[in-house]
Amino acid sequence: MSPRTKMIGARLLQAIPVVIGVVVITFVLTRALPGDPAVYFAGDAADVASIQQVRETLGLDKPLPQQFLRYVGDLVRGDWGNSLSTGQPVLADISRRLPASLELTLIALILSCAIAIPLGVMAATKPGSWRDHVCRVFVTAGVSLPTFFTGILLIYIFYYLLDIAPSPLGRLNFMFIEPDRITGFYLIDSALAGDWETFGAAAKQLVLPACTMAIFTLAPIARMTRAAMLQALSSDFIRTARAAGLGRRKILMGCALRNALLPVVTTLGMVFSFALGANVLVEKVFAWPGIGSYAVDALVASDYAAVQGFVLAMALLFVALNLIIDLTYAIIDPRIGFDGA
Amino acid sequence: MLQIRDLRVQFETRNGPVDAVRGINLDLARGETLGIVGESGSGKSVTAFSVLRILDEGGKIIAGDLTYGGINLTAADENALNDIRGREISMVFQNPRAALNPIRKIGQQIEDVLRQHSLATRQDARRKAITALEEVQIKDAAARYHAYPFELSGGMCQRIVIALALACQPQLLIADEPTTGLDVTTQKTVMDLIQNLAKDRGMSVLLITHDLGLAGQYCNRLLVMKDGEVVESGPPAKLTKEATHAYTKKLVAATPHKGKALHNLILGGAAVPVPDQGEVLLSVRNVTKTYAGKSGPVEALRGISFNVRKGGCLGLVGESGSGKSTLSSIIARLQDATTGEIEFEGRNLNDTPAARFASDPRRSEIQMVFQDATESLNPRHTAAQSIMEPMRHLTKTIPRDRSARVHELAAQVGLPAALLSRLPHQLSGGQKARVGIARALAVNPKLLILDEPTAALDVSIQALVLNLLADLRHRLNLTYVFVSHDLAVVQMLCDTALVMRSGECVEYGPTDAVLSSPKSPYTQELIAAIPQPRP
Amino acid sequence: MSTSPSQSFAAHVGYVLRQNPVTLITFSLLAGLIFCAVLGPLLAPYDPLASSDTILQPPSGAHWFGTDHLGRDVFSRVIVATRLDMTISIGAVALSFVAGSILGCVAGYWGGWFDAIISRGLDMIMAFPLFVLAMGIVAALGNTVENVIYATAVINTPFYARVVRAEVNIRRDAGFVQAAKLAGNSDLRVVAMHIFPNALPPMMVQVSLNMGWAVLNAAGLSFIGLGVRPPTPEWGIMVAEGANYIISGEWWLALFPGLSLMLAVFTFNLLGDGLRDIVDPKQRR
Fold this sequence. Notes:
The complex is a heterotrimer. Chain A is mainly alpha-helical. Helix content of chain A is about 75%, strand content about 0%. In chain A, α11 (about 250-285) runs antiparallel to α13. By secondary structure, chain C is an all-alpha fold. Chain C has one domain (about 5-285): MetI-like (MetI-like fold, Orthogonal Bundle), CATH 1.10.3720.
């Protein structure tokens, strides 16, 4: 087995204790509630008898290790509890709403990279110039604004004042019917069905929330691109390329950028973390029916099983994303897997 | 072929513009190998970079003419320059592994250059790249094509950089310190390769180096630079024997070679008496060191034994990976040996493990001087604070006494008192070396371990420091273990030499015997690699 | 004889401030924020909690930032909120700085099992999207300001720990570290007094970024109803309350607290470079 394959296998194995840790932490979070957990799971309207019933059903009167084993067993079987507000199984709620959040996050990140990476490259080619400073200030301003505030501001300007954007009430204007669910991503589903009107409508609804999130994630990506490009451009191998007569453009785009993208890929992991958090706030502002708004509503309604399911789902999603990023990095960078890497 | 007239180069720095090159003239004929020799700050590398117009940001040619084969390089535009770079004039740099793109196959990197200059099409580029690799004597070129730089040794990487440079058959090769950072034996191979290729192709070579001995062996003519100016030029034999300029004389004197006496490194230097050797101070018997590496146990040391007598100096010679640094840190009790005995003044030194040796009363008796390149001084401490540090923990002195002692030590090592309040980044290499020595002497040690203390220093500073070390040994009754890769230096300072290779001792005996009649082939190789001036 | 560096600390700070105008501006802004935080209630023209009949008034001479839906003066509330938001962020960052530094030093210097356990622990914390974890912790432990501080500290600790671990690792075999051991320093002293101070410059940038995140975190949590509760004036809550009115055109309720948030976070973000220059010995002349 080549060292690379071994290293990839090792990375996959490394994810396992992390998943175990995540499950333990979510378990602890819900059992660490002040007071009687059963009350939280039974809901506000419950009387003493139903609280007792909930306690027995969920096994909350058993010793903790036993509870944990039961918890894990339930999770694996797909039983993540029932939501008090919707009455549905939590896992079903979450899987139904997940594509909405993913679509938003992915579009926002693509948008963010499309702006931030060229910006970072441009700033790196002329460090210290006024262009560099302006970029830095602009990008820092973007990350200093809380996402909920940016969202509100954008709504105010583009919807209320300028009347360009559609009303911020979800994924699709009520005049349109949602496309048949294949992936759950409206853009993909409507494109697959050839329904371009719905595609357009869904895209329009996406613009403001995606921009809100993109503004927030611009800074780390642009900063890291700039730093990585500066590092790459001052490397010895760039000097070799120049001395060999390779053109400026080829050096910049071919050699320097490719080397610089490696640290940017690892930054994306951190950016995802921000994005999945910012998701919650953006979905609330734009009434986006994703798992973020689900969680917020659940919190407000003290719907405990739903909150627990949300935290777990987000963590697992994040672990999976980081794994994909690490593996992508391992594939792109030939040095990984060797001593000294 | 190449003509430089009155070249002036300036750099923009924090403290205003700095003149790196102040009007130099140079003529290079076809087929000639010209060496530019100078210490750090002489402007030699800047000159080389100016020829190809690849100066760093902030550097500018403010005056002068660079002409190559009739083409005015100073006035040429970027397109014309890109045409010349790599095809007519090529360059080879120091730190070969860093000079290659780390994430691209080396064969492809050569192809890039060939295709840039339209000397290959997509179909035959690979074949031509492999041919280029074969010309620099890389075996198995077809397989090596697919390698990445991190998989190859330093010497191999430098050959590839040379292959890249020569792929388009240039007429002029500029080599900027091509052997710095390479093992001594590899240095010889690389320089021989360049020399042979130059002869075969009738190529001119401009060799930039700080090593006068190396330049003397491989060049037809030399230019000596100092502070941005050429102070003298001529054939190496003439410069060595009949130098006229004071600086050249100083440089020639300071360059170590076989058979030179230590005090002759400095003009007008007086010989320091070598102390008589007393009884055995340090006795090392069968020391081994094995530690767990990523792919199984690594044997860093495989049974080393030697004795050092009081007043003596043992030279530990080896290339990288020989284990000499591991051995020196074991003797200094920064690490534990796996097996073996070490006795200091007759007592077992191993009885206290390394982790607790800091509080052993013998800690002050064995001290160490480090190589500057490894950040040997705490960046946050002034020189005085660094020197005082051992006194604070290992002696019972009051602050006022310590201050006085710091001044005393500074005087002993030739460090001006005014520099004591400076931070390391405000000190030169030679000054930092002196601070390191003063720090090691602060607690009156008996045994001093010196780990390549002059490796990163200019040759003239090295001369001063080596003489200082000899002087201190005599005055303070010290015993040295001197670790170095440079046999010529070891010969000057040490009475006994131990040659190491891959953790084993390949030769051990009095220095003169080891150098004049080496028994092991490896030692012979090392000796042969020391540059010999052309007859 | 002076054993301290040629330029005194105060002179060095002055130099850094003069050299980069951005640094000077951000430090002045920071001074302004601290001023508001310390003297908040004294500076407010009206009682931030006092409601009145003059509701939803746009900015005017009497009420510089207008009044909100309960007739409270927005300007007073914004000024007073400075103290709360600054306390949360400074408290959280201080806690995570200390915890992260200790963990990072142990993991970076001694390595081995310590490193393995600490790194896995940090991975587990970082496995959660930060805000989500903060939500989970505050929801579980209870809806108080202290819990917001603890939650923010927990989610920030891994960042410090990682930076410190990397910096300690790089320096572990440096000449001056070995020299410190030769000088009789125990391992603990070597790490604490010699290696760690040299790791400070890169950490300063992290500190400033984290201060910004901490403020945003706290504001975000209050926006969704966790942490600070009304009627306490806090920028996040004020934006949440104001969000309802922006659709109908009363922009001042949300804008001013939002801008204050932005100003604070912006200041913290730009502070990093200046702080690093002050702490970095290589910048001394």
